[in-house]
Amino acid sequence: MNLSIRREISRDNLKAVLFDLDGVLIETEHETFQFYQKYLKEHYGIILPDSAFQLKAGRKSADFWQDALTAEQRSVVDTEKLTTFKRKQFNAHPDTYIKKAFGGKELIQALRMRGWQTGLTTQNEEQMMRTVLAWLDIESLFDVMLSLKDITKKKPDPEIYLKAAQCLAVAPSACIVIEDSKDGVASAKNAGMRCIGIAHPYTSLGDLDRADTVVHALAEIAPIIAIHADKKMQTNR
């Protein structure tokens, strides 16, 4: 897969941009992995090798634990309890465990100034979502915010994106989604939406194949989806 592919997306008939949270506006993959490494070593004497990080990136916690630990280790470690504890720690100490994606707030503000509706769609719990958005100072910049409590099916099911479009009163085909994972991209495409994939160093080959465009940073997105709005504004002056 060519992770450097970039194509402009015409503004014609497009009205909304929907953002995933983790891996798009914030980065927690490495921090989560290091948290697990430290906890397992201190509490169980289990060494989680650095090579296991590839098993974590962009995957559900349950799938990660299934592959990262042996059956014997899983019989000792309460992985569900550990995952819940990690979430509580991240929620209580965002400055310690969460990194901001450069340019996120500025991108959302620029889109809104150009008339785009904006939404947030995350599979995180609502409390975690609101804590992070307050920390980023962007909660007021979204027309709709959906979290785990708002859905019954997780990605790659399109439910969360279809619901976001419904809340915004726009057609799914009028939405662009910003995603970074295979399931996230699949969810957006299954909803009938355009999708921009953000590639990370840990992105696996094929993860973003279904994305309409792939970038490596939020800063690359504005020229792709805002340039047509600028031309339209200049034409109407």
UniProtKB/TrEMBL annotation:
GO MF assignments: catalytic activity; metal ion binding
Cofactor(s) named in the record: Mg(2+)
Keyword Metal-binding: yes
Pfam families documented for this protein: HAD_2 (PF13419)
Keywords: Carbohydrate metabolism, Magnesium, Metal-binding
SUPFAM superfamilies: HAD-like
Family, as annotated: Belongs to the HAD-like hydrolase superfamily. CbbY/CbbZ/Gph/YieH family.
InterPro entries referenced in this protein's UniProt entry, alphabetically: Beta-PGM-like, HAD-like_sf, HAD-SF_hydro_IA, HAD_2, HAD_sf, PGP-like_dom2
Transmembrane segments: none
Species this protein is from: Candidatus Sungbacteria bacterium RIFCSPHIGHO2_02_FULL_53_17
Keyword Magnesium belongs to the record: yes
Protein name from the UniProt record: FCP1 homology domain-containing protein
